[in-house]
Amino acid sequence: MEASSVLDLKAFVPAKDHEIAKQFYADLGFKLNWGNEQVAELEIGSFRFLLQNFYVQQHVENFMMHLMVDDADDWWKRIEEAGLRAKYPGITAKPPTMQPWGLRVLYLTDPSGVLWHIADRRSA
Fold first, then answer.
1. For the segment 68-118, what is each residue's pLDDT rounded down to a tens digit?
2. Domains in the chain, number
3. Fewest Cβ atoms closer than 10 Å to its Cβ: which of 70, 112, 118, 120?
4. CATH number of 39's domain
C-alpha cells in the first residue's frame, strides 16, 4: 500500500461525559461536524479528531494530543477569554513556556483529563 492511498487520519479521543466534552471543545473553538451518542467529529482549521463516548481512567491518564499553532499566546488568550477554568472546574491550564526540546507549550486538560500540548516554535 502506498502512502498516496491514505485519505484521512484521526485520533479517537476519550470522553468521560460526552456532552460536557463536546461543549468544552466548542468553547475552545472547535466546530462539531457531526455526532451521535457514541462519537462526534470535531474540527479546527482543516484538522479533525473523533470524540468518543468512552472512558477508562488509566487510558485517559496516558492520552495526549499535540496541536501545533502559529502563536500559543493567542491560544492562551482564547482559553482565558472563554473562562474555561471557571466553566470546567478541575481542568488544568498552564500558559505557554519554553520547553527543553525547543517548543513553547501551553498545557491544557479537557474535562475528562486528556492532556493537550498546544505549541508554537517561537523563541522564548
1. 999 999 999 999 999 999 999 999 999 999 999 999 999 999 999 999 999
2. 1
3. 70
4. 3.10.180.10
Assigned C-alpha cell, 22: 463536546
* Torsion, Cα of 78, 80, 83, 84 (10° steps): 80
Give the model confidence (pLDDT) of 55-64 as tens digits: 999 999 999 9
**Cell output for 41:** 467529529
Distance CA 65, CA 50 (A): 12
Strands 104-109 vs 115-120: parallel, antiparallel or unpaired: antiparallel
For cell 487520519, what's the residue?
Answer: 9
**Whole-model pTM?**
0.92
Residue-number span of the structural domain to which 99 is assigned: 3-120
